[in-house]
Design goal:
The protein is of the alpha/beta class. It is about 30% helix and about 20% strand. It has 2 domains: about 260 residues, Aconitase, domain 3 (2-Layer Sandwich), CATH 3.30.499.10; about 140 residues, Aconitase, domain 3 (2-Layer Sandwich).
């Protein structure tokens, strides 16, 4: 069996599972973000009284943090009352950050577990050798009541990434390139196992970027065999013992895709689809794309490494008059570390607006949303019409280095010119 199948078998109390089977498996951790107050209502409507395990569930207030309007403030209030009533050990309020960042930091994510959250980008946790997937309010209410959920054992495809990237090419470029080839419907309800020498040598942050965007291909979950960087990170933080699940070396994937990243150049996802990807040089070859806003943040691009890249490019410089750069650290821990290392100060001196750790404008709620006719280059993970504000704004997805170089120049620019 593949590691994902071993995790499903272990948590469903079975020796073996196979593709297409429906199993009922124990959930090791459940997370509800502040978009899903309906989870609380559904819990009570279905007869729920107490959360099955106060150690294994948490709310994360990240999409509306701090609350930008009366409705979201009221929703937070109801969720806080539910968390208090159930004496939840973990609670991440508006001072913490994005769910996919704060959960690993808190040690509740570890290899061999099943984590389910009310967020499609829960595939991120495949970076840690976990099975992470999203669900809706009713399914989450079922988990809170019973600690279990049904799963269909997914087909598993391999995305093998070989080689070493050149300077100026980052994990965001790699996953955008993969997306452009496999497309947004290429892995619907399948699991993606990222393998190869590039993955084996990738740090925790880069792994999270790649697994995060697996869902943009339709994937139900993602997986990477933990390397030493992951094991070191988790060992320092994990709140309970864990067991790494290994893939059978003879495992037969439904499909295998092989990519050589060694000749890859910076990539750009153009409006209005995540898989509308091309090499940056091709996009700007015959035209200049002027920018109103650069955005560095989200569960894809707001970690310390991302902010450090931007600070390195922008240190001692200043963005153009009337342009905007919004920087949203993925968590309070990330922000604190970036302040200690001077990255935040360098970015502020360059004209950046620093906002509260959280999702910010990634879903078009607040802290940097776009007006009609504006162009934004961003490290976030989706560029659908209206995703970051107006449906008449254009969104380009890129690496933090590309965002920083581009907003500095006032138009989409190859970051290798600034390294």
């Amino acid at each position: 069996m593949h590691a994902i199948e071993k995790i499903l078998a272990k948590n469903s109390g079975r020796e073996q599972v196979s593709t297409g089977e429906i199993v009922t498996a124990k959930v090791d951790f459940a997370e509800i973000n502040d978009l899903y107050l309906q989870t609380v209502y559904s819990f009570y409507e279905m007869g729920g009284e107490k959360v099955w395990d106060s150690e294994r569930a948490a709310f994360v207030f990240d999409h509306y943090a701090p609350a930008p309007d009366i409705k979201s403030a009221a929703n937070h209030g109801e969720m806080r009352e539910f968390a208090k009533k159930n004496n939840l050990r973990f609670h991440f309020d508006t001072n913490c950050g994005v769910c996919h960042q704060v959960m690993p930091e808190a040690g509740v994510i570890y290899p061999g577990m099943i984590v389910v959250a009310t967020d499609s980008h829960t595939t991120t946790h495949g970076a840690f050798g976990a099975m992470g997937t999203g669900c809706g309010a009713t399914d989450m209410a079922t988990i809170l009541m019973t600690g279990e959920l049904w799963f269909r054992v997914p087909e598993i495809i391999e995305v093998r990434l070989e080689g070493e990237t050149k300077p100026g090419v980052y994990p965001k470029d790699v996953i955008l390139s993969v997306l452009g080839k496999i497309k947004a419907d290429g892995a619907v309800y399948k699991a993606i196992d990222f393998t190869g020498s590039y993955v084996e040598n990738l740090g925790v942050s880069g792994r999270m970027v790649v697994c995060n965007m697996a869902v943009e291909m339709g994937a139900k979950t993602a997986y990477m065999q933990p390397n030493q960087a992951v094991l070191d990170y988790v060992s320092k933080r994990a709140v309970r013992p864990f067991e790494v699940q290994y893939t059978d070396p003879d495992f037969k994937y439904e499909e295998s895709y092989v990519f050589d990243v060694s000749e890859l150049e910076p990539q750009l996802a153009c409006p209005h689809s995540v898989d509308n990807v091309a090499p940056l040089s091709e996009v700007i070859k015959d035209r200049t794309i002027t920018l109103n806003q650069g955005y560095i943040g989200s569960c894809t691009g707001g970690r310390e490494e991302d902010i450090a890249q931007a600070a390195k490019i922008l240190e001692g410089k200043h963005i153009p008059k009337y342009a905007r750069l919004v920087v949203v650290p993925a968590s309070a821990e990330v922000m604190q570390s970036c302040m200690e290392k001077g990255y935040i100060q360098s970015l502020m001196a360059a004209g950046a607006t620093i906002t509260t750790p959280g999702c910010g404008a990634c879903l078009g709620a607040h802290e940097g949303i776009l007006a009609p006719g504006e162009n934004c280059i961003t490290t976030t993970n989706r560029n659908f019409p209206g995703r970051m504000g107006s449906t008449e704004a254009d969104i380009y997805l890129a690496s933090p280095a590309t965002v920083a170089a581009s907003i500095l120049n006032g138009c989409i620019t190859d970051p290798r010119n600034y390294l």
